[in-house]
Amino acid sequence: MSSKALTWGKAMTDAALAVTQSAVKEFTERYLESLGGTIEKKGDKWVVTVPDNEDTGLPAGQMSLLTGDDTNEEATGEPLHPESEFFQRILREASKRRPTGKLTIESDQAEVEIPQWLEGSDVEVRETQLTPYYDRAAVVVLFQVSIETVSEYQQESLRAIAIDGHSEQRLPELEETFLRITSITTDTTNTASQSAFSEADARSLLDTAQNQLMENVRTEIDEVHREASRAADTEVEEYRQLQQQRIQELEEERSKLFSKIDKLSEAINSSNQDDRVEALKQRKKLKAEYEEVDSELSDLHEQQDKGYPQKQKEIRKRHALDVRVTPLTVTRVEYERGEMDIELAEEGVIRTVTVGYGSGIGPTENVRCSLCDREFTAENPIQTIKDSLRCRRCTSSNP
Amino acid sequence: MSGYDLVDIEVTHEAADDFLDSLSEDGIDGGHLQSIQAVRLQAGQPDSELRSLKELDENSVKLLEHQVDAAYRALFEMDGKALLADEVGLGKTIEVGMILKEMHFRETDESVLILTPAQLAKQWQAELREKFGLDFICNYDDEFEDFDAHDYIIASIDTAKSERHRQTVLDRDWDVLVLDEAHYVKNEETDRYDLIDRLSYNYAFFLTATPIQNELTDLYNVVSLLRPGLFGTRDVFHQYFVNSNQETLVNRDELQDRLNKVMIRNRREDTDIDFTDRTVDTRTFDPTPKERELYQAVSDYVKGAYSQDQGQKLVLMLLQKEVVSSPVALKKTIEKRLYEQSELTHADELESILDLIEDIDTVTKQERLLDIVEEARDNVEMGRVIVFTQFRATQRQVLDRLASEGYTVHAFHGGHSSSEKEQIVENFEEQGGILVSTDAMSEGRNLQFCNLLVNMDLPWNPMRVEQRIGRVHRIGQKRDVFIFNMALKDTVEEYVLDRLYHKIDLFQQSVGELSSILSRLEESGTSFEDQIFDRLVNADSEVDLENDFDAMAVDLQEQRELADKLEEFNSGVFEGFDLGESND
Q1: How far B225 CA sits from the closest chain A CA (Å)?
Q2: B209 vs A67: CA distance, rounded Å
């Protein structure tokens, strides 16, 4: 059976974007415009003018792009679709153009995240109010992770890792916000290609991000690892069986040779001179063959007893996992930290809770039950605010 | 799972120097966002939609959600190597059709080999052509040369593994391999298994409703062909998943997790298919004395001629089928035999049969057909009835008769071009009346707008019967379906209908179920039709004949029960198999 590597079915991952035709068109349009080009749309045909620009290797001048689904044979121009040469080319170019840069998340741009301990509760959230106090910076790195082994399909994925610039803690919520605001529909002006990180800072944050990433993909690697090990094991087993078969064949051959030699020995004792000479010759030849088979057999037996260490090593080496991690973009993300006032209501009682909050990060502080001092969590949400803020555990044990 | 040594992991962190250097560079606004988007698009899945779907003709094929999902998962989540194991009747062929269509659209299908059991090859060819516009050559076509002469081939697996073709099949690197009824390669010691094991291909889709035939090892074998190593070694697989007494499954969750990577199994209860009821009304009529005399004469002739020269089997079988269809159908064949073959024995017998045909003035079946269409005219929407016959001569006569009675009639047979056929179906839908069709209709055309079908004569091959019914009783049929079978008393048709078809509840089986019953039966090598014919000509007496057909019915019944049991067993093993979810 063939085991050609397949490149067709890369698994979709968190950070990857679906390459739909509309995404292709949107991205192309914006990219060409950012180069200073112009686009004149005539139905499915775009007449594009690319300026003479050092930012691009695209040929300057006018060209036609065909964006339609129907391949009209009369229309002339470059096709534009997910796999078209032109689109792949601008993707390559754009990805290399500004891999580092800056992005700012304003409070009004990020979705307001209500703490989880309020989500499953009967207490009503009437209003939220954000008060930003200061700016913070984090770094978000897009990593390409590739896991490869001979027996499994190559798995490639793109992962976003966000690390706080100050605490060097991972900020999973910021990763999600980052992916949301850099999706294809975004045409934000809050990015700048200039990053305010020093190279040393960036390097250190990148290292931290890399470590976090490895933690993050551990399960996937483990899984492929198990599969590859299993496949290697199958191969070792097959080899073992093959050798066993060979041993049996050789043993049969040896015993055949042995009886032939035996017969010849009898002939030597009982025949006339001429025949004897012939038989002796024959016996010598057979004995040599016998020796050869016997020596191969004892080699094989020896290998078998040892468990074919060399072959095993060879097979397991071939099945070894090659994990490759490549940072592709580094973004300094500036976001606001401050407080969020949450106005809660329950049967006419209204209370306001204030929690630490970061735009794009969500709540940064925990709130505790005023009775038992346990933290509110998704599992132990707020139950009532009537007398004070109380958790579910308290109210269920002290009705 | 234990029992193996772990292989090494080598991790390489690529340096970021290149772009860290660019940290201090000035740039244009938006440039960085575009880099991020470009990187994300590059990592994205340009293929994650079935782009050929919109090219399909909705009139030719109605896709169901579970089928689209299966095609999608097989292509994009399983990297083009999948075991499609839906329960019977859910349209695995459609799933493969979509997959092949999509691959064709993406031009990743330079060479495709579809291996099926012999009796399904032509059906595959017709379905792929009619429903998906995909042209395959079949090894039974006259134009078929060899496995290296065509790029899109449907072949019986046994032809492919035969001495004559095997090496040619193996010498080629196939882009796509489709293996229907994959459970027939379960045994690793067979030539079939060996063939698939040695075949070279990039993408493979295996189909079966019953991945497990006898024991869990079957599953191991089939899956290991697709994804070697997924289950580790045979021994480890056994120790880990099968309880030592061989009866029960252990570590089922792990098994399902693993299977999920390669197998798709939809269950009927999970789909929204809602089949309407079908009612079968078999009407047997007393033939006129003249018809009876003719039947007897032909049967005697066939029996006598066969005992002398078995080489004429096909034509004798034809005579035996024609005599119950209509005298005109018979007449043509006999005349041809008389006038075109010079050294014919029994010529006198044939002459006297011709005389008997000439004598017949009333054709019972045709008279009785009028009752049915009359009933339909009053009770069925636009009086639409489809009448099937195997023979053109019968078709012509029925058409004339109906037309003379003032019915709107439409003729459909294999002689029409593809666009003519479409026009005929369209006219039938618009104008109503009666469509008289040969079995050329059985290939891929959908007539859900009609719900009354008459079998003027019955094919001896049950698959054929089901294909006829399948034209109207299919997904999309909103009304109950009525099927009328017409047979003359004490004829082969009555035997086949009564003793065979009804005993196995043929008219309630789906094509999938039937094919699994028949494939089992035909494993022995003789076709169903041959078995019927042999019994017919070899019986010494009426009683013998009845006993013979009863014995055949018992066989069928057994196969059916086995097939049912197998289904049950498989659904037990895969119960709760969560296949709708993917891991992402």
Answers
A1: 8
A2: 42
pLDDT in tens, A338-355: 899 999 998 889 999 999
pTM of the full structure: 0.57
- Cα B323 from Cα B319, distance rounded (Å): 6
Q: Is B17 on the interface with A (CB under 8 A)?
A: no
3-class secondary structure, B4:
coil
The rounded distance, in Å, linking the Cα atoms of A361 and B111 is: 52
User: Which value does ipTM take for this structure?
Assistant: 0.82
Give residues with Cβ within 8 angstroms of A345, minimum separation 6: A123, A124, A126, A385
| A229–chain B Cβ distance below 8 A for any pair | yes
Using the beta-carbon criterion (under 8 Å), do B230 and A230 form an inter-chain contact?
Answer: yes
Report chain A residues whose CB lies below 8 A from the CB of B55: none
Query: DSSP character for B557?
Result: H
Which residue from B minimizes the CA distance to A184? B37
- Residue boundaries of the structural domains of chain A: 18-97, 227-321
d(CA A332, CA B36): 12
Measured between CA atoms, how close is B238 to chain A, in angstroms? 13
Cβ atoms A12, B584 nearer than 8 A: yes
Which chain A residues touch B48 with a CB distance below 8 Å? 12, 18-19
- CA–centroid distance for B241 within its chain: 33
A150-179: per-residue pLDDT in tens?
776 677 889 999 999 888 889 888 898 898
> Which residues in chain A land under pLDDT 50?
1-13, 193, 399
For residue A297, the distance in angstroms to the closest alpha carbon of chain B comes to 26
Alpha-carbon gap: A13 to the closest alpha carbon of chain B (Å): 7
**Closest C-alpha to B276, from B482, B540, B556:** B482
Please name the member of B40, B228, B235 whose beta carbon is closest to the beta carbon of A15.
B40
Q: If residue A206 lies in a helix (H) or strand (E), which one and from where to where?
A: helix A199-216
B233–A233 CB contact, under 8 Å:
yes
Interface A:B, Cβ pairs < 8 A: 270
Q: Residue B5 and residue A232: Cβ atoms within 8 Å? A: yes
| Token duo for residue B39 | 């990187």
Q: Which of residues 316-375 of A touch B (CB under 8 A)?
A: 316-317, 319-331
Give the pLDDT confidence of B561-584 residue by residue, as tens digits.
Answer: 877 777 777 777 676 554 333 333
Chain A contact present for B406, CB below 8 A: no
Residue with tokens 């042995």: A258
Number of Cβ within 10 Å of residue A360's Cβ equals 28
- Sequential DSSP letters for B419-430: HHHHHHHHHHHH
- Is residue A136 within 8 A of residue A334, CB to CB? The reply is yes
**d(CA A24, nearest CA chain B) in Å:** 9
pLDDT in tens, B453-492: 999 998 887 777 877 887 888 767 888 889 999 999 989 8
Helix (H, G, I), strand (E, B) or coil at A372: coil
CB contact under 8 A, B10 and A233: no
Look at residue B271 and give its three-state secondary structure: coil
- pLDDT of residue B2 exceeding 50: no
Whether B77 has its CB under 8 Å from any CB of chain A: the answer is: yes
A221 Cβ contact list (under 8 Å, min separation 6): A147, A321, A323, B9
Number of Cβ within 10 Å of residue A273's Cβ equals: 7
CB contacts, 8 Å: B29 with chain A: 189, 191-193
Q: Count of CB atoms within 10 A of residue B464's CB?
A: 18
> What does the buried/exposed string (b/e) look like for B44-79 if buried means 16 or more CB atoms within 10 Å of the residue's CB?
bbbbbbbbbeeebeeebbbbbebbebbbbbbbbbbb
Interface membership of B374 toward A (CB under 8 Å): no
Judged by DSSP in three states, B155 sits in strand
